Amino acid sequence: MSTSASIASASTLGVLATLRRGVQISPQIVQGIGWTLALAVLAAAGRVVVPVAVQRTIDDGVLAAGGPDAGRVAALAGVAALAVLAAAVCSALVNVRLVSRTEAGLAALRVRAFRHVHDLATLTQGTERRGSLVSRVTSDVDTISLFVQWGGIMLLVSTLQLLVASALMLVYSWQLTLVVWACFVPLYLVLRFAQKHVNAAYTRVRERVGAMLAAVSEAVVGAETVRAYGVGARTGRRVGAAIESTRRAQGRAQLLVASSFSSGTLVSNLALAAVVVVGAHLGVGGALTAGQVIAFLFLVQLFTGPVQMATEILNELQNAVAGWRRVLAVVETPVDVAEAPDAVPTPRGPAHVELRGVRFGYPGGPEVLHGVDLVLPARAKVAVVGQTGSGKTTIAKLVARLMDPTAGQVLLDGVDLRRVTLASLRERVVLVPQEGFLFDGTVAQNAAYGLRDVERLPADEVRGRVTEAFAALGLTDWLADLPAGLDTPVGQRGEALSAGERQLVAIARAYLAAPDLLVLDEATSAVDPATEVRIARALDSLTTGRTTITIAHRLSTAEASDLVVVVDAGHVAEAGPHAELVAAGGVYARMHASWVAQTR
Questions:
Q1: Cβ contacts of 249 within 8 Å, gap of 6 or more
Q2: Counting beta carbons within 10 angstroms of the beta carbon of residue 309, is it exposed (0 to 12), middle (13 to 18) or buried (19 or more)?
Q3: Residue with the larger pLDDT of the pair 153 and 2
Q4: Cα gap 129→377, rounded to integer Å
Q5: 566 - beta bridge partners?
């Protein structure tokens, strides 16, 4: 049985460990953090100038021994205004630096996650719905961006503001400082307790968002099928259920945040009232001046302000951590089909393929190939035939190294595919699936994906080579029938073309890739007769002079092959030329006789 990796729903790291790991894979976020911290300190320090200025203005200006000193009051007000202005400039610079660094770091994270998704084996990708997988690189990263660019700024400045305000409160009155902290210690314990529950709630939110996007994307992509079968209402209910599930998860998370952290406002008001009572008592006793009591009240406001914002900040933090965990789960998913450290490139030339004792089983299922031994000569046209589920498509995927065998070896020119560099392998081996996938663009642009050096070639040379490819495949007349020839838009997923026309473009793409080994999932099983003739003619040109392995659904393909491989229940039952296998009277002869009877 295969031990292929699967994509976890989320990383299991704690909050701080998640943040540390996130910074490790996106170091751009913390580049220049020293300057950012210095600016944040200045911004926080600028905010505490006002309480100090108020205290000095009252004690040394308004209540001066010789009467109010207007000049001193004006001077102190001017200093305070300059300090506030400087703090605002520093805060703006902190904002700019965090935004620019965050965007650089998260752009790198998106690219890394996207690249890793493409490095994962097709079996691993299949463990996650496509829409949900896309959401990890898009909306989940957006939650990180939102927090770091807004919540991160507020968290950074507010933390420094708390520290500076606490230090200054101690200077004014250690007694009142203890009163304030005595009010907030219980709140801190409540928040610590609530954090785990909020964290779990937002992890569920990100999972529900991924499921919702998957349901919506499937409904959009399958719109034609939905209309054809009249299942719009059923599909709408399915999408509606996913949206409702997301809404409920969001509601539960927000309710938990509100109930856990709204006590911050209550505690802040309680602290302010306690300071007024105790401060008045200390003032009456001569321990504090009127200016110091009023300044302390300002400092309490600076202290409680960040606490009152804790609800929104921690809300964004938990959402961001949940998103980060889902992205990390993708990035840290092991790559099953990986390049070995000692991998070597293999030289171009006629491809000789051999399977030795190959076994394979899909995750969670029984073994589908049982010790397959097979030799496929260079430049031979090989047809692999067998009943549905016999294992013939699995052989094709193993030869193209879309997955690795659980036991045994697949060799290309005598070298185990696991020891061949992936770049060399993809250059020499090309798989053309039964339904060619086209990207949104023109016919020419889609065919040009086969050119290895397309980005380094002039546009006119690319177009010339694409034109030559269609001519070599005998498809010039087909191009002439298209509305704009090579410049005909194919639409999303090639939907502007028929299935057969999409396959013609895919064949041209494979021709331009010029592989040594071509693996084909027979392309003529569901097309009209005219297109079938075009495809057959194009395939003739494409396969000439190179090793070709075709998963044959029609035995006419096997009749025209040099070697026919019959796969039966995971074993190679027979292998040889068509005529010999028919004469042998075995499995292939019975299959061929049945096919001939059906085609009469």
A1: 201, 204, 205, 207, 208
A2: middle
A3: 153
A4: 39
A5: 385, 574
Residue type, 293: V
Residues 161 and 142: their CA atoms lie apart, in Å, by 27
Q: Which of 125, 122, 136, 146 has the alpha carbon at shortest distance from 211?
A: 136
**Token code pair at residue 478:** 């087909």
For 337-355, give the DSSP string.
Answer: S---TT-B---SS---EEE
According to DSSP, residue 420 is labeled B
Q: Which residue's entry shows tokens 């965990």?
A: 325
**Do the Cβ atoms of 123 and 4 come closer than 8 Å?**
yes
Q: How far is CA 517 from CA 346, 377, 468, in A?
A: 13, 11, 21
pLDDT confidence of residue 517: 92
CA angle 133, 138, 144 (to 5 degrees): 115
**Paired strand residues for 518:** 430, 548
116: how many CB neighbours lie within 10 A of its CB?
16
Query: Contact, 592 vs 582, CB < 8 A?
Result: yes
Q: For residue range 332-352, list pLDDT tens digits in order.
A: 777 778 888 889 988 988 899
Beta bridge partners of 383: 550, 564
| Cα–Cα dist 596/590, whole Å | 10
